[in-house]
Structure formats: structure tokens, C-alpha cells
Amino acid sequence: MRLCAQFGFAELHLKRLEILTAAGNVRSQHVAEKAGAMREGMLRQRLNIGGVWHDAVLFSLLPADLAAASV
Fold first, then answer.
1. Does the pLDDT at position 71 exceed 90?
2. 37 near 61, Cβ under 8 Å?
3. Alpha carbons 16 and 65: distance in angstroms, whole number
4. What is the separation, in whole angstroms, between the first and last Cα of the chain?
5. What gap in Å lies between CA 26 and CA 10, rounded to an integer?
6. pTM for the complete prediction?
7. Residue (of 24, 53, 56) closest to 40 by Cα position
8. What is the pLDDT of residues 9-56, one digit of tens each?
9. What is each CA distance from 38 to 11, 50, 51, 58, in whole angstroms?
10. Helix axes 2-10 and 63-70, enclosed angle (nearest 10)
11. What residue ranges define each of the domains in the chain, with the CATH number in brackets?
């Protein structure tokens, strides 16, 4: 994830990345946090998985967050 984020910030000049995970997917949330992403909140009934609506957790990653996580 860090490599993809570095590419997005350096080559595509993105200013912000957003990561959505299913609320029950703790492993994906851990990946986002380990990369330096900040949890912003819960989006109710945001993801449709197999015809069932699920809550999602929204994370954001800024270039400074990625640099701090790499230290």
C-alpha cells in the first residue's frame, strides 16, 4: 500500500488518498493504519457486498502521513 501511495503522490500529484474498509474487516483497517492513514469515521450502509449493505470505515492518507509512517 505504501508503494502505491508513494506513486500516487509523486507521479500523479495526488493530494489525498481515501481508503474504505468494511467495518468488520479489522485486517484491512490495520493495513491502512500501518501505512499511516488516519481514521476519519464510519459511513453507514456504504458498501454493497453480495447484495447486503454494510457499514464502512473511512481512512485518509496525506503525503505527510506517509512520510511520518516511513520513519
1. no
2. yes
3. 10
4. 16
5. 29
6. 0.86
7. 56
8. 999 999 999 999 999 999 999 999 999 999 999 999 999 999 999 999
9. 22, 28, 29, 9
10. 140
11. 2-70 (3.40.630.30)
